Amino acid sequence: MSLELWLIYLVAAVGLSLTPGPNGLLSLTHGVCYGFRPTIYTVLGGALGFFVLIAASLAGMGALLAASEKAFTIAKWIGAAYLVYLGIRIWRSPASVLDVGSRDQGPRRARPLWMFNQGFLVAVSNPKALIFFAAFLPQFMVAGVSFPVQLAIFGGTFVVVEIVYELLLAGMAQRIAPWLTRHGRWFNRGAGATFVGIGAALTTASR
User: Fold this and answer.
1) Is 108 left (phi over 0), alpha (psi -120 to 50) or beta?
2) How many Å apart are CA 193 and CA 136, to the nearest integer?
3) 8-23: per-residue pLDDT in tens?
4) Are the CB atoms for 91 and 15 separated by under 8 Å?
5) Measuring CA to CA, which residue among 22, 45, 57 is closest to residue 128?
6) ∠20-83-60 over CA atoms, to 5°?
7) pLDDT over 90 (residue 60)
């Protein structure tokens, strides 16, 4: 993968992470209810879940794309169309609302394993993430590069971005939750426009 292509993937990974979704909201909620340190388990569970989704997507699509130029072209246009569709959906979606009043009594008692499992299950059961990876990753895969190397690049990049983002949410939960309630719609519009732009750019990608 060239540096330019990796940078496009990095922007897309940041865009997906910044999009209001179940894992981000879960980290925000746990940050409010349990505090920052316990929520690290939630974040790590979600990161593992996303890594599993990426591994599954790479394993299934790699062989197909290596064998067929036509399959690559179809996947490219499907992926671009999905990104544009996702961007429009995000643009039109309402702001997320989180009740921060539960922290009045102080942080609740945290259960690390339960929080890790919840983060993992929310990630692997997220159809948006599954469809996104299946549609998007094929455009960045390089023929002849081993599965472990590509998994390290794609999975590692996204997981690091997701961990940083969710830890920021958990650490700033008390400040971010009210802001999202008031201004979340403008945030959604910015993220949506980013996805539409990335989808348009990917139509020019070559194998």
Assistant:
1) beta
2) 17
3) 888 888 887 877 677 8
4) no
5) 22
6) 100
7) no
